[in-house]
Amino acid sequence: MDDVQRRLTPLLVRVRPNLVLIGAMSICFRGAIETAKYIREFLGDDVCIVLGGRHATETIYRDDENRVRHHLASPLRLIADGKVSSCFDIVLSGDGEHFIAEIGCVVASLEARGFSPRQAKFSLGHLTTTPGHWIAGTIMDDQVHTVCSSGMPLDYNGMPSPAEMFGITTSFDVFGGAPTAHVFSDIGRGCIYDCIFCSERISVVGPPRQFKISPHRLCGQLAAARRVVKADYGENFPVSAFIEDSTLLGWNSALVAQFEKVFDPLENPVRLGGQATIDQIVNNPALARRLGRMGLEYLFIGVETPRPELVGGLHKNIATKKGSWMERGDKAVEILSEAGIKVGVSLLFGMGEGAAERQQLFSALESWRKTGSLITISMNWAVQHPLRNTVQGNEYTYLDWAVSPGPMLSLLRNFGESSEIYPIAGGTSPDEASVKDILQATTEIMAMPPAHPMQKQEADHVPGRGGA
User: Fold this and answer.
1) What does the DSSP assignment read for 307-364?
2) Per-residue pLDDT tens over the stretch 259-313
3) With the CA atoms of 221, 226, 228 and 232 taken in that order, what torsion angle do they form, in degrees rounded to the nearest 10?
4) Which listed site, 81, 149, 236, 358, has its alpha carbon 20 to 30 Å from 103?
5) Residue 460: its pLDDT value, please?
6) What is the pLDDT of residue 133?
7) Residue 155: what pLDDT?
């Protein structure tokens, strides 16, 4: 936290915010608590601190009878039980797009009348018609109080794109360093599959939303990215975009056909990347060719394990009659290569696999690298998420740091998500020897020259989530 405080203090001095929004996944919950505590010590009652993000959404939820429930790790429950200090004034579960704007107006009104921004928590009951599906909670008289939205749906078409709101400051090496926008069709909050270990699973995040008009939203966000790059970087500067849908337009033929009608790659040239699953690609290879013609040149796929039957719950493993998981992985990479699309791979360890399974996985990666198709590898170590009421196995409060200081901290910085103390049920925690072996193997694979040097693209930055 010392480094965070050094970077945070000048911002607090210069801005002196009256509203701070903190988002956290579960393994970052301890960091969110410490950050909020420091801000509270620095600004006192002159700031309202709101916690949102995936951890709050997974731990505060409505059951099948529409009652508000709290997971063991609910921030509100932990505060009420005295296990966490009252560092958060409000905790928000669910859609926050409109809620944060409304709570900002409440804070501004309170300050204008000479009241503390922290008193915004008393106004939650007046915000129920704010669009979105959300639950907002606070602590009053040492008791948890929650308010639920009326459920007015979000109008995704009326929302500005992230590029227009925040600009484009990132660039992925897979796109040759071109400014890279994060764009969304907003089909849903996660994945259509239900893999038991994944916080993107449909039983946690809910079904797709406004599915039919998602190609139009995606087209609009790509056009916005183009305008922002043109304005900020120059007329002829290249543009790239990573499409953050858990699977690109659901890898759905009808949606891709709509996208072809509304998006002109010649008029709006954008280098595209996205995500899909192995079986989606194998079951509908024609979409790879069509999307390749639209500008898709990079696809991120999750492999997780060479033997899904050992982990029991790889729900996206749907085409079992078309060969083993790794055979279908070979086929998917072949299909993408023929369409001129490079491949990034998300690996997930700690699911109970052994040395033999890892070696099988590395052998496949070697072959993909040799063809010139594989240009980046992302690594994760399986972590147990709260998953609302669907968890099957270990339950944690997530109050401890996911990785303790020491040798493992520097090693696990190479992993997108990992924890020494929050393994999934039936899984394993990372150990130093295994992590070093994995790092050595993946480093050697990426150092291998492709069979076709002209196709080689080096990539150190890994876009996208590991959920595909």
Assistant:
1) -GGGTS--TT---GGGS-HHHHHHHHHHHHHHTT-EEEEEEEE-SS--HHHHHHHHHH
2) 999 999 988 899 999 999 999 999 999 999 999 999 999 999 998 877 776 666 5
3) 160
4) 81
5) 38
6) 94
7) 84
Amino acid identity of 409? Answer: L
Question: How many degrees, rounded to 5, is the angle at CA 75 between CA 18 and CA 125?
Answer: 60
Spatial contact of 382 and 349, defined as CB atoms under 8 Å apart: yes
Q: How confident is the model at residue 468 (pLDDT cuts 50, 70, 90)?
A: very low
The answer to whether the beta carbons of residues 272 and 290 sit under 8 Å apart is no
Task: Please list, in sequence order, all residues whose beta carbon lies within 8 angstroms of the beta carbon of residue 100, skipping any fewer than 6 positions away.
Answer: 21, 50, 52, 92
Q: How far apart are the first and last CA of the chain?
A: 32
> What is the Cα–Cα distance from 168 to 337, expressed in whole angstroms?
29
Query: pLDDT confidence of 383, banded at 50, 70, 90?
Result: very high
Handedness of CA 290, 291, 292, 295 (dihedral sign): positive
Domains and CATH numbers, the chain: 2-148 (3.40.50), 156-382+423-455 (3.80.30.20)
For residue 15, give the H/E element and its range. Answer: helix 2-15
Spatial distance between the Cα atoms of 347 and 303, rounded to a whole number of angstroms = 6
Give the tens place of pLDDT for each residue, 340-351.
999 999 999 998
Q: Which of 290, 189, 171 is nearest to 225 (CA)?
A: 171
Q: How far apart are CA 458 and CA 461, in angstroms?
A: 9
Q: How many whole angstroms separate alpha carbon 213 and alpha carbon 89?
A: 37
- Helix ranges (DSSP H) in 16-155: 29-43, 54-59, 75-80, 99-112
